[in-house]
Amino acid sequence: MSIRTPLMAGNWKMNLNHLEAIAHTQKLAFALTDKDFDAVEVAVLVPFTDLRSVQTLVDGDKLKIKYGAQDISAHDSGAYTGEISGPMLAKLKCAYVAVGHSERRQYHAETDEVCNAKVKAAYRHGVTPILCVGEELPVRDAGEAVPHTLAQVEGGLKDIPAEQAESVVIAYEPVWAIGTGKVCGADDAQEVCGAIRGKLAELYSQELADKVRIQYGGSVKSGNVAEIMAKPDIDGALVGGAALDAEEFVKIIRFRD
Ligand code: PEP
């Protein structure tokens, strides 16, 4: 297996109640084989209310599917009504947590500072952050996609030591491609993902940069995933809408077939 095992992650967003989550995870478990898990890592990022159900299934049947949450509080406990903390996610054995998804940045005004605090909270409790970055359409049209995205990477990783940063997952998700059906061209995605790796080398070291997995996200489907995954700096996909269809998500996971 290569140094960077591809991470194929489904972001369910605010979909699937806990019963639907069980049925969906069972479908994935039934379809996926050891051969799939030898080739890639598979994860689902689920609503908080689904975590216990997914954990019970994964633990009980010793499934190789990883799971995690879509957000984390920057605080570990206290008077933060409605928030879910790192210790709570760790107790549910979450492997991953998305930080700074564009829908969080857009609808909940999450800044790079907030994302940075959430990345730190995740690491405090042994949950691997998937730091989501990417530009809006006017930024791309202005030719600023790379510097904009690199600033988000730098802001999100501020004061994160190398021992932690080497395990971070960065998801490059151009905002205009999320849920719109408009996929970013594979060459354009590679340009930004390559620049992200360059930024990691500058912030830390080339050795660390070579270890970090960089995903692409934005209207990934079985029909376009192979072209995207063929790019040298793209090490996985963060899949929204298409991950809600178990058969389609399995096809995406099997992008090499
Ligand atoms: C996402 O939610 O991170 C995403 C990329 O969504 P979609 O695949 O639907 O564009």
Automatic annotation (TrEMBL):
Pathway assigned in UniProt: Carbohydrate degradation; glycolysis; D-glyceraldehyde 3-phosphate from glycerone phosphate: step 1/1; Carbohydrate biosynthesis; gluconeogenesis
Q: Does the keyword Isomerase apply?
A: yes
User: What processes does the entry annotate via GO biological process terms?
Assistant: gluconeogenesis; glyceraldehyde-3-phosphate biosynthetic process; glycerol catabolic process; glycolytic process
Name the residues that bind substrate: N11, W12, K13, G179, S219, G240, G241
Q: Which reaction does it catalyse?
A: D-glyceraldehyde 3-phosphate = dihydroxyacetone phosphate
Active site location: H101 (electrophile), E173 (proton acceptor)
A Pfam cross-reference name: TIM
Q: Which GO terms describe its molecular function?
A: triose-phosphate isomerase activity
Q: Could you list the residue ranges that cross the membrane?
A: none
Q: What class of enzyme is it?
A: isomerase
Record's InterPro entries? Aldolase_TIM, TIM_sf, TrioseP_Isoase_bac/euk, Triosephosphate_isomerase, Triosephosphate_isomerase_AS
The enzyme's E.C. designation:
5.3.1.1
User: What's the superkingdom here?
Assistant: Bacteria
Q: Which GO cellular component terms, listed alphabetically, does the Swiss-Prot or TrEMBL entry include?
A: cytosol
Q: Which terms are listed as keywords in the entry?
A: Cytoplasm, Gluconeogenesis, Glycolysis, Isomerase
Q: What is its main location?
A: cytoplasm
Q: Where in the cell is it found?
A: Cytoplasm
Family in the record:
Belongs to the triosephosphate isomerase family.
Known function = Involved in the gluconeogenesis. Catalyzes stereospecifically the conversion of dihydroxyacetone phosphate (DHAP) to D-glyceraldehyde-3-phosphate (G3P).
User: Subunit comment for this entry?
Assistant: Homodimer.
**What is the name attached to this protein's record?**
Triosephosphate isomerase
Q: Which organism is it from?
A: Streptomyces laurentii
Encoding gene (name): tpiA
